[in-house]
Amino acid sequence: MSSIDILASPIDFTPLHERMQWYVDQNILSCCNTLVMRGLDVLDYRTFGYMDLESRRPLREDAIYRMYSNTKIVTSVAAMILFEDGRIGLDDPLAEYLPKFANARVLQADAKTADDTEPAQRTITIRHLLSHSAGLSYGFIEPMSVIDRCYAERGINALGNPNDTLEAMCDRLATAPLAYQPGTQWRYSLATDVTARVVEVVSGQRFDAFLKRRIFDPLGMHDTDFFVPVEKHERFTAMYAPLDPFSPMKGGLALADDPIKGQYTQPRAMLSGGGGLVSTVADYLAFVRMLVNAGQGEGARILKPATLKLMRTNQLTSGVGVNFPMWAMPSTVFGLGLALRTAAEADESAKVVDEYFWGGMAGTHSWMSPRANLTGMCMTQRMPGFWHPFSHDFRRIAYQLAAG
Questions:
Q1: In which domain, by residue range, is 54 found?
Q2: What are phi and psi of 127, to 5 degrees?
Q3: Where does a domain end: 173, 189, 208?
């Protein structure tokens, strides 16, 4: 019996189930779950595959997943709570809260080394952080670039050093040049981790304590945290990596993070606002329902409708879009913590326009479509699993079956 209430629906989701099961059967995914919601009602929820390939225990409905960059939406909501509280402003200089980011230098257009810089023409703001337009980088997306080489040399690690803290990471990050002038481009980055540190400074609380008090407890998200305690280890999924990382549709997986011996089984110093959370389908569904329900969930008001509308409004300079070197994301811009679709591709429903979404590197995806009144969640534990064909298939079939 599912812990998630499913509305009786005339829609036959068999084509979706068969396609997701195919990915497991082909050993492309070790596990997968899919959830489709209209309004606040779950129309379909199904699990596929295994907790781990070694024991082949069936995937549990209450399984715990590494959420990676789905954490960013949670962190962005945390920042917007402080915005509503009047504690921060979107155009406040970052240096007002983290002074070491004052007097930033920017890489010159033809920079050959991290020393080839010029003064920043404007200060980094909170708005820049939340829209990934601050000039920061990640350190791994373009490892041969000047900026990512600089991060590596300074020990700026996207997943956090074992004994690091948000404060220590931000201090090192502040010594690196910016990749571009703030506000002029979009680049996926550590900006959301910096946002988490701002939350700590402004609130006077550790980041995990703030999330628990203002988001997790009000929404009943009791399995969401930055580690998995020992009493929940049996519910923690194993994570796998493809044997051939350059062939996403080729089967073959190797264990990448053990659920018992891995890095998530004890509290960590690094509370990564960009990618540190673990969660369950039920917990993350409560969070997504809050977003869909204009900021209210489980009887608690987390954000005002106007704040969520602002988050779903493009914050990038005209002509700037979301662009990854390895993944094409056409007709996509960025709001405050959320990617936004501005147009449909030839093979898509017109109702994808205004869809807001994001996902995690290990394959945890969520998207919300106001025009279709449809929400999708699809999770696995494959590294890398962001923008993988399985998530595109899930989204495409869900729209075909349920968008109307």
A1: 14-65+216-259+277-402
A2: -60, -45
A3: 208
What string of DSSP letters covers 289-313?
HHHHTTTEETTEE-S-HHHHHHHTS
Q: How far apart are CA 225 and CA 231, in angstroms?
A: 14
How many CB atoms neighbour CB 382 within 10 A?
Answer: 24
Same domain for 51 and 80: no
What CATH number should be reported for the domain holding residue 120? Answer: 3.40.710.10
Q: What 3-state DSSP class applies to 23?
A: helix
- Across the range 218-240, mean pLDDT stands at 97
Looking at every residue in the chain, the average pLDDT score rounds to: 95
- 340-373 pLDDT, tens per residue? 999 999 888 899 999 999 999 999 999 999 999 9
Q: So what's the pLDDT on residue 404?
A: 72
Q: Which residues of 199-229 are buried (b: 16+ CB within 10 A; e: fewer)?
A: bbebbeeebbebbbebbbebbebebbbbbbe
243 shares its domain with 391: yes
C-alpha triplet 127, 133, 139: angle, nearest 5°:
125
- Token duo for residue 52: 């781990």
What is the biggest distance separating any 2 CA atoms in the chain, rounded to whole angstroms?
63
Residues 115-140 have pLDDT tens digits of: 999 999 999 999 999 999 999 999 88
Q: Is there a single domain that holds both residue 187 and residue 126?
A: yes
CB 147 within 8 A of CB 137: yes
Confidence of residue 1 (pLDDT cuts 50, 70, 90): very low
Q: Could you read off the pLDDT of 262-276 as tens digits, one per residue?
A: 989 999 899 999 999
pLDDT at residue 70 in the model: 97
β-bridge mates for residue 117, sequence order: 107
Is residue 368 within 8 Å of residue 343, measured between CB atoms? no
**Total count of domains within the chain:** 2
H or E stretch at 272 = none
